[in-house]
From TrEMBL:
The lineage of its organism: Bacteria, Pseudomonadati, Pseudomonadota, Alphaproteobacteria, Hyphomicrobiales. One of its GO terms (molecular function) is acyltransferase activity, transferring groups other than amino-acyl groups. Keywords: Transferase. Residues 6-169 form the N-acetyltransferase domain. It comes from the Bacteria. Pfam families: Acetyltransf_1 (PF00583). InterPro entries: Acyl_CoA_acyltransferase (IPR016181), GNAT_dom (IPR000182). It comes from Bosea thiooxidans. This is GCN5 family acetyltransferase.
Amino acid sequence: MMSVEAGWRRMAPADLAAVMAIAAVVHPDYPEDEAVFAERLRLAPEGCHVLAGARGDLVGYLVSHPWPAGVVPALNSLLGAIPPDTRNWYVHDLALLPSGRGGGAAGRIVAEIARLAVQAGYASLALVAVNDSTGFWQRQGFREIDDPALARKLASYDDAARYMRRDLQV
């Protein structure tokens, strides 16, 4: 269980090696190159955070960025740029090592990203839920969106992947 001294902070380029190590443990079936995380950090630094444990070691991360609603970026691919006039904030990845779980840290960073998105004028949050995480995301206010146009893209994750969205009050 996570210590109460642990907390979220903005990700820095120096954190990328630790982020990659966490991703390898938490999401071994969804490998992505460090360049993908580095680009997300460069394009949307306000949406990239790391969870530091009580000893300062990183035990989790969140990577998120603006991206059009109803569109799922391909796994392990560079975005190039954020499309203009995007009104949706996309949660690319939330990963916590077992030592970072159980203290409410995941819910806190989702609430913070939602607050930041509202403050910046975004209308919704969206994500692809994997690893049987649909229940967690539902508790954070997300709902499944059944869109046949997304079926092929979701299948590239796994059979249980679900596109989910949370409307925001702006």
